[in-house]
Amino acid sequence: MISDQKLLEKEIARRRTFAIISHPDAGKTTLTEKLLLFGGAIQMAGTVKARKAARHATSDWMAMERERGISVTTSVMHFSYGDCEINLLDTPGHQDFSEDTYRVLTAVDSALLVIDSAKGVETQTKKLMDVCRMRSTPIMTFINKLDREGLTPLEVMADIEDHLGIACVPLTWPVGMGSSFKGVYDLRTDELRLFSAQHGGRRVEDKVVLKGSDDPRLDEYLGDAAVKLREDLELLLMAGTPFSLEKYLAAEQTPVFFGSAINNFGVQELLDTFVRMAPAPQPRPAIDPSLTALTAGQTGVQKAQDNAQSADPLPTRLVHPAEAEFSGVIFKIQANMDKAHRDRMAFLRVCSGCFSRGMKVRHHRTGKDFNLNNATIFMAQDRSGVEEAWPGDIIGLPNHGTIKIGDTFTEKTPLKFTGIPSFAPEHFRRVRLRDPLKNKQLRKGLEQLAEEGAVQLFRPLINNDYILGAVGVLQFEVIIARLADEYSVDAGYEATSTHCARWVIGNDKAQFDDFKDYYNNDLALDAEGALAYLAPSPWKLESAQERYPKVEFRTTREIS
Ligand code: G4P
């Protein structure tokens, strides 16, 4: 019989947890669907799109999003592929995406980047890649829509290298594009796969495989394109960077595939390589207060919380997925679509050990025990009750607002996982309440909505204003609609002079006190009581940074 530890290690080794990221319309939904199709998780293309539409129809504020043809939710899909168990985390596709999108990237071990060959790198992709870079997340790239006219492969790769600061190493190479797209050449196996358009279901093995660039049938099948292909191959051999698995895992290189998701072309190669190369669940840093003595009367979690705000960090260690004790961290909260119940789903990434239904775990922020009877796993098509889950898996914990982003659950050790930060918002609005008698409801509504993590709430030190900050402006509309819908609060917005927000930490008490005096009018507390500087302009921020070199102006803040 296989021992528990061996089983744990085996389950970890076969898991891949990744996010799929792209600019809207690059083909993320289409590719996701094809991955699910090849994994056997769905039987027909169109299912993911249909599900997206159905999900949008379930509440009023979601209807608002549907009208704009966008999705601001992030979904999680679990499916099997061969011997692998895959957790795919989708990211919202519109430019009005939210902080959630960034945070999803903190819950994965790798990412798949989809680029439209005609458009190259676009703004949203850059922002998401910044987060990947912060964490050195390995990235695999799929250049899509080769069946359309686009940039040359070298142009797209140069664009990726310039904008995303990562070396591109092609593993396949396209022959032609648009109406003259003939197929892709696999640079590792020296095989040519000829393109055939297939919009529907699972791909059948009808490809013609030619071996090597000297194969005389190359000219027969490709005509003039064979000459160009041979030139390209020679150039790649001479000037191309060799692929290194270590460099991919260190996020220094991205392996590149070319294809056409809608035509099922190039997807299987991508998926096969992905499951082979992408990292299994990785260790994660956590504050472990048990490593130092607690002061009298202090609980481990209090110590961890105090520490999050202090400049004197507690010992942090890497929690390895193969540690026997179960641990997990919440990276996302989503309001349930059923507004009558106002319940929420908290998304937990299992970080170590095995989860089994009904197990009792400690919710360390509150110190309460939690019976995980109702945990849900997100299958490709349905949610279903989860019997067991392993490191890398994502499970949903239904709750009524007791769980917050960044919360850690373990069997007993009072860990506090780090690396699930808040990101500095880029857009700001001052909330205007139309009925002054509803101030209490407004406050409650804003606090609860801020806890879900889509917007941040700032309270200036000098007045009672509510300043909302968001990463994408759509969130502002969602908040007003939800305040009306769920809290019966009629509110609107006024412009604010805030240009950007930075969390401030003083490394020198005298200088920090002076800073706080000088900038008192522009200081605010966020929903967790952390001090932030709401800078009215970029140059004011710059001058504050120059004037107070011992004050740190942070673009992210660890959630306590
Ligand atoms: P997104 O999730 O990244 O926003 O993109 P999505 O998959 O929805 O794809 C955006 C559009 O690009 C869709 O067309 C889709 O059919 C098309 N597309 C995806 N992959 C390919 C490809 O390999 N080649 C070509 N030519 N088109 C592709 P649409 O007209 O917006 O939607 P639909 O009516 O096809 O559903």
Tags for this model:
560 residues; alpha+beta; Rossmann fold; Alpha-Beta Plaits; 16 helices; 29% helix; 29% strand; globular; binds guanosine-5',3'-tetraphosphate
Bound molecules: guanosine-5',3'-tetraphosphate
What percent strand? 25-35%
Low-confidence stretches: 54-61, 64-74, 201-206
Total strands: 34
Q: In total, how many domains does the architecture comprise?
A: 3
CATH class of the largest domain: Alpha Beta
**What is the rounded distance between the termini?**
42 Å
Structural class: alpha+beta
Please identify which CATH superfamily of the largest domain we are dealing with.
P-loop containing nucleotide triphosphate hydrolases
Number of alpha- plus pi-helical segments: 16
Give me the side-by-side strand order of the main sheet. 18-17-23-14-15-22-19-20
- Report helical residue fraction: 25-40%
Look up the CATH topology of the largest domain: Rossmann fold
Describe the structure.
There is one protein chain. The protein has 560 residues and is of the alpha+beta class. The chain has 3 domains: 18-76 and 89-277, 3-Layer(aba) Sandwich (Rossmann fold), CATH 3.40.50; 284-417, P-loop containing nucleotide triphosphate hydrolases (Rossmann fold, 3-Layer(aba) Sandwich), CATH 3.40.50; 424-558, Alpha-Beta Plaits, CATH 3.30.70.3280. It is 29% helix and 29% strand. The chain is built from 16 helices and 34 strands. The strands form 7 sheets. The protein has an 8-stranded antiparallel β-sheet with strand order 18-17-23-14-15-22-19-20. A hairpin with a 6-residue loop joins strand 27 and strand 28 (467-470). Helix 13 (439-452) packs across helix 14 (474-487). The chain is globular. The two termini are 42 Å apart. 46% of the residues are buried. Bound molecules: guanosine-5',3'-tetraphosphate. Guanosine-5',3'-tetraphosphate (G4P) binds at residues 22, 24-30, 93, 144-145, 147-148, 260-263.
